[in-house]
Amino acid sequence: MGPAGMGNSYAQRLERWLDPFSDHEAVAIAEEMVNRGFTYDTPFAFALILGPLPDLALDSPPPSWMAARAGGDDILLRFRRALRDLAEKSRFSDFLHDNRELFDNLVAQSSEGYDPQRISGWMESFYGYGADGYHTVLAPASFPTGGYGVGITSGNGEWHLYNIARASESGPGTPILPGGRDLEMLAIHEWGHSLADPAVFAHPDSIRQLEDLYEPVSHLMAEQHYASLQSFAQEQVLRGIDAFARLEIWGDAEYQNYVSQMNSRGFYLTAMVAQELASYSDNRSEYETFADFAPVLLERMAREEPRPPRPRMRVHPALLVRAILGVVAAVVVFWWITVGMRRRRKQIEEMHDLDDSDSFSGS
Fold first, then answer.
1. What separation in angstroms does the CA of 196 have from each of 22, 27, 172?
2. Which pTM value belongs to this model?
């Protein structure tokens, strides 16, 4: 995702560095994949399965869901080779080296007051299961504020969860990224996708029973890119978990504030879900894990009465994908590629305009 304007100082440096290579093969491949759905969390996930520069090694085939969004394994492998070539020709390692002090400062700022061990510990206790590793990635050239959650199975079979934090779209200054409590809250949500979503998706019949609850807020969900009943169910359950976590970890004020925010965005079952999760927490002898409780929760949600949310402001629509900080060149380059795609389209439009003008003058 990219900013509506020029972006922060880091994003601008990134664009200037890669601008001379706008005709590289990676641009054409990226455009093809984006048109097929290789957007949002997918390029970040692709970057996370690659090794570091200069090789960008790929130890195992891409997961099937990623290949489906890209258009198959072959195009992902061609994209990897093109990115490796682009990183070499652009001397992208030099760019990363030149920005190392900024990266270190951003990490230090976001790390202040951030306790990922406490958060992952709470989550494993709540869910009754967990992952082999929990990671946080700062993405200073990806906008707007928010994040993505990605789960990756490594070559040795370990399962690692990633909380990818995007920057605030705050103008041309130094990137502003979440830190401390805000980053902890983001981790609960983004790591939670990998822990909660499979438990919810395992019950498609129960999800279909939420149709009447989804319909009154379907337009708000579409504005936030949750334009399906499945997405609504997934996000509503997870936001109920977010609310329950706030109540347990930070207290009632944070809980009430979050519930109010979610109501305004159309997630009007947040308080109800949190209350049911309190019941789950009090009855762990009956429900060993969240996966055991998920069908019960969905059934109880289906009994609720539909009701519209309070009016809200429109969210800023997502643009194309921008870069992850320091994972590998793949996603950093991907942000620039989208700029190249827009530039190419503009050039084509100008050529068409010129052709039309010539035809008119000669008639």
1. 40, 35, 37
2. 0.84
